[in-house]
């Protein structure tokens, strides 16, 4: 098992989760991985008060928004 089990609940110094950061800056495969492998919750909010869907919208990530809207 090479998964970092602390990643699911970890937050950076700004209070953002791996999922909210991925939704804002990464691609849909990263977001899918975090949700499907780590069972991260898309509705969890980061420091900004935005959940993964809103972070994707903020970052202009329409493919991520579509994925999150359909799960």
Give a short synopsis of this structure:
48% of the residues lie in helices and 0% in strands. By secondary structure, it is mainly α.
Describe the SSE topology:
Elements: H1 18-25, H2 28-38, H3 52-58, H4 62-69
Describe this structure as you would to a colleague.
The model has no long low-confidence stretch (mean pLDDT 93). The chain has 71 residues and is mostly helical. Helix content is 48%, strand content 0%. Helix 1 (18-25) runs antiparallel to helix 2 (28-38), helix 1 (18-25) packs parallel to helix 3 and helix 3 runs antiparallel to helix 4. The protein is globular and about 30 Å long.
- Let me know the largest β-sheet: none
The amount of beta strand, in percent, is under 5%
Question: Which class of secondary structure composition applies to the elements?
Answer: mainly alpha
The total of helices stands at 4
List unreliable stretches of 5+ residues.
none
Q: Fraction of residues in helices? A: 40-55%
**Helix and strand element order:** HHHH
Shape: globular
Taking all Cα atoms into account, the compactness measure Rg is 11 Å
What is the tally of beta strands?
0
Mean pLDDT: 93
Features:
71 residues
């Amino acid at each position: 098992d090479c998964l970092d089990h602390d990643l699911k609940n970890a937050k950076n110094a700004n209070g953002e989760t791996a999922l909210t950061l991925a939704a804002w800056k990464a691609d849909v495969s990263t977001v899918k991985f975090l949700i499907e492998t780590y069972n991260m919750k898309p509705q969890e909010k980061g420091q900004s008060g935005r959940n993964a869907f809103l972070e994707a919208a903020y970052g202009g990530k329409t493919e991520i928004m579509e994925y999150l809207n359909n799960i």
